[in-house]
Amino acid sequence: NDDITKKVLAEYTHAQRMVTHEAQLAVIKTITTNRKIPMNVLNRKQAEAPDTCEVIVNRIGTAPGMWFEYGGAVLVSLPGVPFEMQALMDDVLLKLQQRFKLSAIFHRTLMTYGLPESILAERIAPWENALPPHIKLAYLPNPSTGVKLRLSVYDVQSDTVAAECEAQVARLRALLGDIIYGEELDTLEQTVGKLLREKGATVAVAESCTGGRIASLLTSVAGCSAYFKGAIVAYDNAVKTSMLGVRLDTLQTYGAVSLPVVEQMATGVKQALRTDYAVATSGVAGPDGGTPEKPVGTVCIAVASSAGVASEQLYFSTDRQRNIERASASALNMLRITLLKN
Amino acid sequence: NDDITKKVLAEYTHAQRMVTHEAQLAVIKTITTNRKIPMNVLNRKQAEAPDTCEVIVNRIGTAPGMWFEYGGAVLVSLPGVPFEMQALMDDVLLKLQQRFKLSAIFHRTLMTYGLPESILAERIAPWENALPPHIKLAYLPNPSTGVKLRLSVYDVQSDTVAAECEAQVARLRALLGDIIYGEELDTLEQTVGKLLREKGATVAVAESCTGGRIASLLTSVAGCSAYFKGAIVAYDNAVKTSMLGVRLDTLQTYGAVSLPVVEQMATGVKQALRTDYAVATSGVAGPDGGTPEKPVGTVCIAVASSAGVASEQLYFSTDRQRNIERASASALNMLRITLLKN
């Protein structure tokens, strides 16, 4: 009812009438049928578009995209639901490329985890300073995915650009080794999944401070049932002892946020779920619960494998959500490094 | 090293020199100390800004914001890390409000869950059609948070606007009842947490297709240890039987995605973690695993309480990530409705 965009664009482009777009109507029928909700007049009206536009069919939602050419300009209207707009953007970008002559940009991206941006920059400074001036380097840090390194060449004129960037990437790989976990669009959970698949191995997770986020990241990858068995989120200490076999005296002596406890969590879940690998976290996510010895942002991580169990203590920030994100990513990264070694 | 913005803005505004901003340097020192990483010359340079700007201190990251006034224009430069930029925007908006005379906009927002947008619109159509023309209504749907209803008055001139909107909100509440779960910025997991706190009750989660997302949402709320005990992510059927006590014959007769199985998961985790309430999910998230009877997007949800266990089967889309998000939100909503009743 509040969609005035369609009305305004129809008026502006002097449309004669609204036309029902059959392909969009079919999508709307499928969506309402699948969700077992009745299709009403409002759903039906969403398939209509002014006769002055070309409809860009929205295959995952009810509101179509519309492409107008009027007064020498291209006007594109897309649905307001963020993921629907995102899905249609690929079609729009393709159409824009066909409609206008655009200069080419070449990107080559590597994903890194484990070094803060400033340390990473120091490590690769000699290489970066020797880059030819037309190849630009960008550092794109993110608490969940690490630092993305992106090489770019703008306004590409020659066809040697790809090979040139590839040679630079090879040098970068030699400098950074296993700090690099993938290329553009790769995630830590995908890389971990790929390594587990290659080994035919399985994994389980025991989470305290990350509260299910690591399990959630692992299951975001399609086909993860081949290697992910499950997780125990032991937010309460009683669950740590009853479900994971953490010893009460260890909890009392060292506290829940400690290397001995997180190691017992990892070995406990590995045993309970009968997997080859396991990863565990325990930390002070905040905003409360910090002490002078273990301030907010302190996180313990352990990884168990056939080679035994290893653990480390890390320090992040005072922000709860960031701490959970960083702890989850660091745990997946520690699992990745373990998978590379044994 | 790739920060050319600072350099360009210094040149453009004819800066004489770069000045180290002590408050920003202090933040950088704290961050590097807490994370136990050495502070190098690159970190130190981040605290510098051209003498032509006013520094907006970044309290959660190393790169400061910069506010320039030059040639009659205001230029604002913010850090590129998305959550750092977001945190500084509040300061920037406040400064913009003080610097320029802006007309006021009044918003009043209600969060709803449980009715698709088109059905919701039908239900409130008489009320919406009777709204005075200066009060606008927007529908803002989101797979994780439901449909947000926002009343807006633009270019506010009178001081009766708040009371007027409040009267409309009261009518809307009467029409929608428990479909409304909160106001602007409230989330389902916060509302569920509030209800559990008020009852002094605890909750546990058993997840198959949602893979830890429900637990992750519950733990995103600070202070959740008061009511959240933990979760069992039983992605593998063997974990459903061994850890949750799901019966093998039930799995074999009805399949993992079925009301009997999800009910046993809910009662199983409630018993294992000794909580007052429990919620469970099992579904076909996709892209594979669908059958004619249970296509991708089929999700079963159960909630267990002292009143027994209730379950329902829902149908979403073909997109894995959307299915996980919708299933998690629907499970939290079913728990919310249960908490309102008993």
Structural overview:
Two copies of one chain form a homodimer. Helices cover 42% and strands 24% of the residues of chain A. With 342 residues, chain A is α+β, with helices and mostly antiparallel strands. Chain A has a five-stranded mixed sheet, with helices on both faces. The first copy, chain A, is globular and about 80 Å long. The relative contact order of chain A is 0.08. The model of chain A has no long low-confidence stretch (mean pLDDT 94). Strand 11 (228-234) of chain A pairs antiparallel with strand 11 of chain B.
Mean pLDDT of chain A: 94
Structural class of chain A: alpha+beta
- The SSE order of chain A reads HEHHEEEEHEHEEHEHEHEHHHEEEH
**Considering DSSP H and I runs of 4 or more, what fraction of the residues of chain A is helical?**
40-55%
Question: How many DSSP helices of chain A?
Answer: 12
- Our estimate of the beta-strand percent of chain A is 15-25%
Low-confidence regions of chain A: none
Distance between the termini of chain A: 59 Å
How many DSSP E strands of chain A? 14
User: What's the arrangement of strands in the largest beta sheet of chain A?
Assistant: 11-10-12-13-14
| Assembly type | homodimer
Instruction: Determine the most extensive contact between two protein chains.
Output: A-B, 81 and 80 residues
Based on CA atoms alone, the radius of gyration of chain A comes out at 26 Å
